């Protein structure tokens, strides 16, 4: 209960009179790259989006409609009572497949799963990130916050050291963004393809020479939960393009 | 996933110039990269893109290994007649993909 009160206080403080200094990674990109993201006829993620749309209309439309899923991605990760822990949007899609559609789950980071996740997240584009006020999430949120501040790897860096203290600075030729997960799954030019937030977090972890968690590890869900809380109120941009 | 996109206006006035944007989901594997075991990945690229409209070849391009994955091409043409705009992608190992959109000329 004390934890809940503290969390509510922190949430209230973040919407105080102070101007919001949070910026999406989009703001740190060149005008050409910003256009690549904003223009739907140029955005390379449109290929996955179309694939997801077609997949949705055949695999999901028996239960779901597109308007019915508007805003849903802005509320993930969310607590799943059966699993007893929070699940990410991609995990929810696969749970939905195994529990209701009686279909085999898509492989992690497969183009099928990324396409569907991109389509569902795109339905919330422009909507503010709204983490659920669910007390069951608090211990996981606390874990995410702790992991964000924990030094890891041979370089002994925490997420916070780069993305809070040195945000807007440079790491070699690249600008260090504030690490707000506003546009996942993203089309990353370095990958020449789509990837999830977990793939991006793994990149950061290997960057500081730490051993990354396995895909779908609970630590990643906790980190995502904290990052979404940290980005609460910022608009969903999916599908984002990043360098 | 042979999936492509063609973005062109649905309606254009006769004689007007309009833009066609085409992209294809393709790895464009250059033949220069190695997998996690250090083995060279075989080259697998798109070699030729052709766009036909109103019975004519209006645009063609030869692609090479240095072109990034998911190639995107944008070009202009003049609206002369209603009908399909067809983009055909041909690549190595017999890859062939073709898609079209219909243009209405007013």
Mind explaining what this structure looks like?
The complex is a heterodimer of chains A (243) and B (106). Chain A has a single domain, classed as Cytochrome Bc1 Complex, Chain D, domain 2, CATH 1.10.760.10. Chain A is built from nine helices and seven strands; from the N terminus they run αααββααααββββααβ. Helix content of chain A is 42%, strand content 8%. The mean pLDDT of chain A is 93. With 243 residues, chain A is mostly helical. Chain A starts with a helix and ends with a strand. Chain B has 106 residues and is an all-beta fold. Chain B has a single domain, classed as Immunoglobulin-like (Sandwich). Helices cover 0% and strands 52% of the residues of chain B. Chain B is built from no helices and eight strands. In chain B, the strands form two sheets. A five-stranded mixed beta sheet of chain B has the order 2-8-7-4-5, with no helix packed on it. A three-stranded antiparallel beta sheet of chain B has the order 1-3-6, with no helix packed on it. In chain B, a hairpin with a 4-residue loop joins strand 7 and strand 8. Chain B is elongated. At the A-B interface, helix 3 of A face strand 1 and strand 3 of B.
